[in-house]
Structure formats: structure tokens, C-alpha cells
Specification:
- It is a single chain.
- By secondary structure, the protein is an alpha/beta fold.
- The protein has two domains: 139 residues, Aspartate Aminotransferase, domain 1; 270 residues, Type I PLP-dependent aspartate aminotransferase-like (Major domain) (Aspartate Aminotransferase, domain 2, 3-Layer(aba) Sandwich), CATH 3.40.640.
- Helix content is 37%, strand content 16%.
- The chain starts with a helix and ends with a helix.
């Protein structure tokens, strides 16, 4: 028995993998990873694979990045963790200061947590509790966009609209108001802003019909990632901020996947020239090293919880590893890498190379849309282009692309019929060409009828 097969067998005896039908692994082989370096992963027998999806979008500067590794190692020899209730430490303070510095103006307070879902939960609780603290207890509803995803814990699941994830748990969930997504699938670029304006009119109607009831609206700025990398223009962000101001509704920006340079700016909200009331950060925050998240909010929100006598006005939320010193060190080192070179300018070149690499698919009979926002590029497989007919997701054509790519040494993880790239920022031109060529060949194979 080879080393890969040994690990697979041991795994299937004890592990339960996330977002996975475990029965699939009776025929779909697990990838046993021994090590990583840059964009490459290596299995137990020495075969290498390009990590084209940044290991669920968390890895910004490559695996085993020497700068981040050194920072975590140094911190581990000093302080690994300490309770953050009634205690503080310099890495947490420095990281909070840095986040206030680099996020849009007005986000002046930082609450640390451990995951993206937790950050979303915190933002929902903070928004609701803010209105309660200022005497507007009737604001108990949340608005979400159709096809959205914000995490798997119950509160985060409630404000998503991904039926596949939440259908089984409906009896446990609160019910949000759902606004039509501004997703511009298959629309030419010159129509995107007009489409966004129509969707803003839908949002205005919801706000007007439920005036005084809504606590916050939550969005994924520019890209609905788990919803199939569906994209929309910055003008929607600008218009939504204006609507939220008009109707006194909080705007929660879930930048968990799109933050830290993924969309071409440090934060996607910047492209709309806006600052949200709450910004949720995670994934790339620590460069893919350790689980951590942060919720950014304003001094105005913070002051609504500040009270000399009443503990119940305080924000009574915590978890044991809040502000973990090792995670803070990894995050600070990640932020330093942005300062050492013009990462965003470099990413613009990489993004252009990715688009050029898939240009042969523009006329493919079964590619209905090629869309890109910064370092996120997606190709959507369809049964027919004109008129557009989509494949039944149950045919699992994306899984066929996944299997083919794995055999060729590329780790892709299609979302339904959407094949996408979200690689680490250290990928080079040759690696981009290899990644694209394998994906295109996989799409050819998966769309043969």
C-alpha cells in the first residue's frame, strides 16, 4: 500500500470532512497533502498540485511563506495566547490599529473572533443590540440578497439564501427579507449599471414597506462567492449606501472572501467609494495560517454600548481564543507583505494574464459566461449559449472538471457548474497558463454529451 492510500484509509476511519458527501469518497480519492510551498501542494508520494483556489480562498502569499512563518514562530516563543477579557497584549493592539488604518474611514473599532461565520453573527448581534440600546426595539429584521451566502452557523445561515446549505435547518432559522441580487450573469458590461439600478429600486421598495423594522442589510460586495462567483458593479454599493442612510438601516459588508486585495482594491467596498457600518473580515486576514476574524465598526456604534452602570448595554459576546496572539502575529506579517511591494499593482497584471489564458473559451459552445473581478475569475458551463440553457447541477459536471484537474496536478473546486480561479498572489505566468489549460481541457471533457 502506498503512502497516499494509507493516509486515505486512516482518514476515512475517523474523519468527517466539511461540505462533503462522505459516500463520494468511496470513489473520489482524497488528496493527502504532506507539504506546501508557494502555490504548490505536495502529496505523500511527491506529486505536486497547484492550489488554484487558495485553500478555500484563505492563502494570499503562498504556502509556508517564510515571512509569515518566521513571525508566527517568533510569537510562539513569547506568548501563544492569553484571555482577552480584562487582559491585552501588543499583537492584538497593533493589529487593531493596522486594521483601523487600512479599512475605509469611519471604521474605528475592532472586535476579534475566530471565523467568518462568527464575524457575521457578531455583526448581526451588534446591529440589533445597537438599535435596542438607543430605544428602537422594533428593528428586528435583516435583509439579504438572493443567492447570498454568509456562513454555516445558525445566524449566518439565516441571512444567506443558498438553499442547498440551509434547507435542512429551516425550522431553526430566522427569516430574512430577501432582495433580488444585482448579479449580472450573462449581461454585457455596458448593461451592468442599469441592471444594478433596477435592483436598487427593488431594495428601496423593501426598505419602504418595512420602514422602522429593519436592523441591517448584509451583502457580499461585488462577488457572491459561494453562490457561484456571481458578480455585480460598484455602483450598486454606492447606491445601497445611500439607501441605508436614507432609511437609517445598517449596512453590513461581508468582505470575508473578497477582502485583502481579491477584487483589485484592498477592500471591495472601496470600489464603490463607501464605508459600511460593519465590515466582516476573515480568510486572508492571517494569510491562510490561523483561524481568525474581525468585525470593524464605527465609534458611534461603540458608544451606544458604553455605559457606566448597565452591564446589559455591553456587548456580551466572546470566545476563548479571541485575539489569539499567534493569529495576530500571522495577520500583522501578512499586512507587512502588502507594504513590502505594490501587491495590488502586481495583482492587476496577474488578473490580466488569467483572463488572457482563458481567452480560447470565449467562443466555446458550453461556456455561457467568463467573468472576472480582480483576482477572481469564473467560467460557467451551460448546456446551450443562445438561448441560454443551464445544466442541471445534479449532473455534477463541475465534479468531472475537479477529477480531471486533480489527475493533472491542479486543485480546483468548482461550485456546481462554475469553474473558478482564486489563486495565491505569488502565482506566476507559467503557472497561470498551466492552471488555465488544465481547466479548459477539463471543461471540454465535462461538456461532451
Amino acid at each position: 500500500m502506498g503512502k497516499n492510500e494509507e493516509i486515505r484509509k486512516r482518514d476515512l476511519n475517523v474523519l468527517w470532512h466539511p461540505t462533503t458527501q462522505m459516500k463520494d469518497h468511496e470513489w473520489l480519492q482524497l488528496l493527502p497533502v504532506k507539504s506546501g510551498q508557494g502555490v504548490w501542494l505536495e502529496d505523500m508520494e511527491g506529486k505536486r498540485y497547484i492550489d488554484a483556489i487558495s485553500s478555500w480562498w484563505v492563502n494570499l502569499f503562498g504556502h509556508a511563506n517564510p515571512h509569515i512563518s518566521a513571525a508566527v514562530s517568533e510569537q510562539a516563543n513569547c506568548l501563544e495566547h492569553v484571555i482577552l477579557a480584562g487582559v491585552t497584549h501588543e499583537p492584538a493592539v497593533r493589529l487593531a490599529e493596522k486594521l483601523v488604518e487600512i479599512t475605509p474611514p469611519g471604521l474605528e473599532r475592532v472586535f476579534f473572533a475566530d471565523s467568518g461565520s462568527s464575524a457575521v453573527e457578531i455583526s448581526l448581534k451588534m446591529s440589533f443590540h445597537y438599535w435596542r440600546n438607543i430605544g428602537e426595539e422594533g428593528r428586528v429584521r435583516f435583509v439579504t440578497l438572493s443567492n447570498s451566502y454568509h456562513g454555516d452557523t445558525l445566524g449566518a445561515l439565516s441571512v444567506g439564501d443558498a438553499g442547498l446549505f440551509k434547507a435542512a435547518y429551516e425550522p431553526l432559522l430566522m427569516e430574512p427579507l430577501v432582495a433580488p441580487s444585482p448579479d449580472c450573469f450573462a449581461l454585457p458590461p455596458e448593461q451592468w449599471d442599469a441592471h444594478a439600478a433596477e435592483r436598487l429600486a427593488d431594495m428601496r421598495e423593501i426598505f419602504a414597506n418595512h420602514e422602522g423594522e429593519i436592523s441591517a442589510v448584509i451583502i457580499e460586495p461585488l462577488v457572491q462567492c459561494a453562490g457561484g462567483m456571481r458578480m455585480y458593479p460598484p455602483s450598486y454599493l454606492t447606491g445601497l449606501r445611500a439607501l441605508c442612510d436614507e432609511f437609517r438601516v445598517h449596512l453590513i459588508a461581508d468582505e470575508i472572501a473578497v477582502g485583502f486585495g481579491r477584487t483589485g482594491r484592498m477592500f471591495a467596498c472601496e470600489q464603490g467609494g463607501i464605508a459600511p457600518d460593519f465590515m466582516c473580515l476573515s480568510k486572508g486576514l492571517t494569510g491562510g495560517y490561523l483561524p481568525m476574524s474581525a468585525v470593524m465598526t464605527s465609534q458611534k456604534v461603540y458608544e451606544a454600548f458604553y455605559d457606566e452602570y448597565t452591564t446589559l448595554r455591553g456587548f456580551l459576546h466572546s470566545h476563548s481564543y479571541t485575539g489569539n496572539a499567534l493569529a495576530c502575529a500571522a495577520a500583522l506579517a501578512t499586512m507587512e507583505l502588502f507594504e513590502q511591494r505594490d501587491v495590488l499593482a502586481d495583482n492587476r497584471l496577474l488578473a490580466a494574464q488569467m483572463l488572457e489564458a482563458v481567452s480560447p473559451m470565449r467562443d466555446h459552445a458550453h461556456v455561457g459566461d467568463i467573468r472576472q473581478t480582480g483576482m477572481i475569475l469564473a467560467l460557467e458551463m451551460v448546456a446551450q449559449r443562445e438561448p441560454m440553457i443551464q445544466y442541471d447541477w445534479k449532473q455534477r459536471r463541475g465534479m468531472q472538471v475537479y477529477q480531471y484537474a486533480m489527475a493533472q496536478g491542479i486543485l480546483l473546486r468548482p461550485i456546481g457548474n462554475v469553474v473558478y480561479f482564486m489563486p495565491p498572489y505569488v502565482i506566476n505566468a507559467d503557472e497561470i497558463k498551466l492552471m488555465a489549460n488544465v481547466a479548459m481541457a477539463g471543461i471540454d471533457l465535462a461538456t461532451r454529451d
